[in-house]
Amino acid sequence: MSESEEVVEAQGAEKYMLVDCITDPALDWVAPEPRGIASALTPKDPRLYTTVEQRRANEPQQWSTRLPREDERVCSSFDGHDFAMYEFVFKEMGLRLPFSPFAASVLKALQVAPSQLHPNSWSFIMGFERLCVYKGVRPSLPLFFRIFKIQRKPTKEVGRAPRQNWVSLKHHEDVKLFKMFVDSVKDFKERYYVVRPESPSARESLIELEEDRDEQGVARKDASGQVIVRAVPKFPLSWSYTHFQKEPKEYTTGDADLSPEDMAAFESLKTFVTGFTLGVWTTRKGVTIRDERGEPKASPRFINTRTLLKCKNAGEVKLCLDEMETIAERMLKAKQDEKASRSGRGKKKIVARASQEVRPGTPSVQVIGTSAGTPTSAPRPPPAKRTREEDPPVEEAGMGACSKFPVPRCFTVDRFFEKYPPEVFEAERTAILDQEPEVRRQQHARDMAAMVRMVSSSLVLGDERESLVEQLNTAQARHERAKGRINQLKIVVDDLKEK
Fold this sequence. Notes:
alpha+beta
């Protein structure tokens, strides 16, 4: 799919009955479709989806939805802090209110209402946030607009200035990280409703305080000399022309505009995606498609946005993005570690403490350093008894900066775990029990994901070996056929020389 096709809305394929009932002259710049497409949602619609927030059964409702009136359109202004939004974004993409601080900052920077953005653009915002959390980088606006840029598709009419439609985001030409959530969203334009904040906290998530200034930009003060502040929306809640007062390129960021932190994050995200293995073309039956030379056809792979947005928690996001990473990159890292181990770089000496004693019957273990040092045989010391106040920090408890860890020789000792049952260090036990329930749940999800990744890697690497053997056999057969063909051509050449 070409970049120009990313945000095409298939206007030629979609036919709506346009009924323009907007009388506000301030909306004359809006194109016919947003002005004329009425919401097709009805209370009896079996497909109607109105879940816009994540809450438990006993929690009070923070947000509600209502169907637009006959004279209301997606670009209309609504009472209070109400705003229009598409059912598709909540139902298919899993957006939940309130808006995240980053999503609110994008709307504010672009000066657009939530419904003024094309739904595919919402998938980019949500996917970008999850990718940044996974890679441990800060999701900043300069970084976001270094990856994405603005695309507009105004409606041109004879005898009048072009009028504006939805605003879309697309990748810059030199970088692409995400696949489109969906190529063409055909019915989002007529399936929208009005969202209303029902609680004070919900309303506060939409507003911010700013100084009240006069026409000269001077802050106004009250009788006591205090600066007057007022509550204003963080971003437009209804369609705004302010966005179109700037050219699309004015919303983009160049390399020179990135801070060192954002530049490092940009390179990290690019390197992650460009490291994906190529996607091999197959038919619906799973048969590999090959080119004229017999080689499998392949194309670059990007983050599967639809799969990513289906993840319900951080553990699922990590597992999803881990599975997208190339196996070849993992193997390359393993080879680099093995090479460093052989060269002896990072080798550290192990100094035994005089106070430690070896427990009778304890087998020897291999100590492997994180700096790829050479494995060294050493007895495993018993865990030291410590009080709560003397427990080491998290790094010493084996959860961060620990440089070495013991690996038992399970494969060389018969019935190892029966003879030497595993035990947990007291510091590790304390660290686990001190975790909050939610933190402990997330840690457990990450640990489970790591186990699944280990099993997946083992299975995939086994399949990879079988695939390589099959490819080798195929190549050898092709080589033998080529040798036979060469011999036949030599005979033909000899015959031609005799003639």
